[in-house]
């Protein structure tokens, strides 16, 4: 009986797809991954017509990203082809960053800034600096970051300081990097600053100080739900494994 229900749902989704002219990529997914794709199709393509709330929209966006991760990039490029504006180029660059394609995002950010005709945009320049870091161009990224005005909002200042610390570390300026990581670890949400602080302490031979930092990470991890830990799974796995090794030594 469950198998018949699954077949019925699969047929319903395929019929809905054909009648409403939805993205043909769904068809292959519905045929080869019927259960998962049928759930995703219902959330993405059917629920909006039934009326949704904020939580449903969040689930919908995640399902879209899983089934068709380049959807936003295609839409952004289409918009940029129609109107080569700073906003559209920025949208393209942001979509590329979301896909982990920083090298392609750099020229898009630069194009967005060029279209401002020298007016400048600290937010876009900060994103360009972050993209340059991801491509290994740390000197250029730091030069750009140094030329930016200090953000008014504390959270924005902290994000820029985290990028600065990573740039210092990449350039071998470990002293200033440690100072920034230690400061950011006291207030920045998430555990990236603490984990990077611990990793750099280990690289400097400061095993006991690193262990203390990772003990705090482990304590804070216990307060996170599975979804929150999954978002930074590699980082938390490294922290847990490294802490276990330090406890044994």
CATH superfamily of the largest domain: Tetratricopeptide repeat domain
Gyration radius from CA atoms, angstroms: 23 Å
Name the poorly predicted regions: none
Share of β-strand residues: under 5%
Termini separation: 56 Å
The count of DSSP E runs of length 2 or more, i.e. the number of strands, is 0
Number of helices: 15
Main sheet record: none
Question: What structural class results from the helix and strand content?
Answer: mainly alpha
The gross shape turns out to be flat
User: Helical amount among residues, as a percent range?
Assistant: over 70%
Q: Kindly state the mean pLDDT as a whole number? A: 86
Tally the structural domains: 3
CATH-scheme architecture of the largest domain: Alpha Horseshoe
Quick tags:
single chain, 249 residues, mainly alpha, Serine Threonine Protein Phosphatase 5, Tetratricopeptide repeat
Ordered list of secondary-structure elements with their pairings:
Layout: H1 2-20, H2 25-32, H3 34-46, H4 54-67, H5 71-82, H6 86-98, H7 102-114, H8 122-134, H9 138-146, H10 154-170, H11 174-184, H12 192-203, H13 207-221, H14 226-231, H15 233-248
Describe this structure as you would to a colleague.
It is built from 15 helices and no strands. The chain is mainly α. Helix 1 packs across helix 3, helix 9 (138-146) packs antiparallel against helix 10 and helix 10 (154-170) packs antiparallel against helix 11 (174-184).
Summarize the structure.
With 249 residues, this protein is mainly α. The chain is built from 15 helices and no strands. α6 packs antiparallel against α7 and α10 runs antiparallel to α11.
């Amino acid at each position: 009986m469950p198998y018949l229900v699954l077949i019925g749902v699969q047929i319903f989704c395929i019929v809905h797809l054909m009648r409403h002219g939805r993205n043909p990529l769904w068809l292959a997914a519905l045929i080869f991954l019927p259960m998962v794709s049928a759930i995703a199709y219902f959330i993405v393509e059917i629920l909006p017509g039934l009326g949704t709330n904020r939580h449903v929209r969040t689930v919908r966006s995640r399902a879209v990203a899983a089934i068709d991760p380049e959807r936003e990039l295609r839409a952004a490029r289409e918009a940029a082809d129609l109107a080569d504006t700073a906003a559209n180029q920025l949208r393209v660059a942001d979509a590329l960053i979301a896909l982990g394609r920083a090298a392609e995002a750099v020229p898009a950010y630069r194009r967005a800034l060029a279209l401002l005709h020298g007016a400048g945009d600290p937010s876009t320049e900060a994103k360009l600096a972050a993209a340059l870091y991801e491509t290994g161009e740390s000197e250029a990224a730091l030069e750009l970051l140094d030329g930016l005005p200090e953000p008014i909002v504390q959270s924005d200042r902290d994000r820029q300081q985290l990028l600065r610390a990573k740039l210092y570390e990449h350039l071998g300026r470990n002293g200033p990097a440690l100072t920034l990581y230690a400061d950011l670890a006291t207030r920045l949400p998430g555990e990236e600053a603490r984990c990077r602080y611990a990793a750099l302490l280990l690289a400097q031979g400061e095993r006991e100080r690193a262990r203390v930092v990772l003990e705090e990470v482990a304590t804070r991890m216990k307060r996170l739900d599975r979804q929150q830990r999954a978002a930074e799974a590699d980082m938390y796995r490294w922290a847990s494994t490294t802490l276990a090794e330090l406890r044994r030594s």
